[in-house]
Amino acid sequence: MTVDDIAELMQRRGAAQYGREAVSQLEHALQCAHLAETAGEPDELVAAALLHDLGHLLAAEKEQSVEPASDRDDLHQFIPLPLLRGLFAEAVLAPIGLHVDAKRWLCAQEPGYFESLSPASVHSLALQGGPFTPEQAQAFEEQPHAQAAIRLRRYDDWAKVPGVATPALAHYASLMRRLALR
Ligand SMILES: [Fe+2]
């Protein structure tokens, strides 16, 4: 997979609705990247924010449907990793792979976080294993890039606002080209 392939997929599949939220997949990805960028995050985390839900688009390519099955964990955080490995460094890949665990960590560690989740997110949380136990939370924290994944998760939560202006996808395609390993 190349940066051009990623941009093409996001452009073509990105019009699909983001779960049960009021923004499209592409709007969600751009808002998430823009939040990371304006927060002063390194380019690697901006790229991770843009790509964190690429698994949904890749699954749609395969299944001809973007409606996630509602009765099982879609494991979307892991789907893009084999395709992006070789293209980006671990600082891009790890937060993508950890962004669901970051939600489980926040539910366990941050008062009020669970209550702030949308009904759809509460539903997927249950499928994903629910809030971490204290032991699981500690094991999560010890992983490299865990803190970056938690920050990504917050941008993810905020990136659901209809009508927000963001830079175009081309801006982030340039950023990804700068980060690409080959
Ligand atoms: Fe997301």
Instruction: Write down the overall geometry.
Output: globular
Class computed from helices, strands and strand pairing: mainly alpha
Strand content: under 5%
CATH secondary-structure class: Mainly Alpha
CATH superfamily: Hypothetical protein af1432
Tell me the CATH architecture: Orthogonal Bundle
CATH topology name: Hypothetical protein af1432
Order of helices and strands: HHHHHHHHHHH
**Cα Rg:** 15 Å
**Domains (count):** 1
Q: Which small compounds were modeled alongside the protein?
A: fe (ii) ion
The major β-sheet equals: none
> Which spans have pLDDT < 50 for at least 5 consecutive residues?
none
So how many helices? Answer: 11
- What separation lies between the terminal Cα atoms? 12 Å
The overall strand count is 0
Give a verbal description of the structure.
This protein has 182 residues and is an all-alpha fold. It has a single domain (3-179), classed as Hypothetical protein af1432 (Orthogonal Bundle). Helix content is 62%, strand content 0%. It contains 11 helices and no strands. The chain has helices at residues 3-13, 25-38, 43-51, 54-63, 81-84, 90-109, 113-116, 119-127, 134-141, 146-158, 169-179. Helix 1 packs antiparallel against helix 11, helix 2 (25-38) packs antiparallel against helix 3 (43-51) and helix 6 packs across helix 10. The relative contact order is 0.20. The mean pLDDT is 93. Fe (ii) ion binds at residues 28, 52-53, 156.
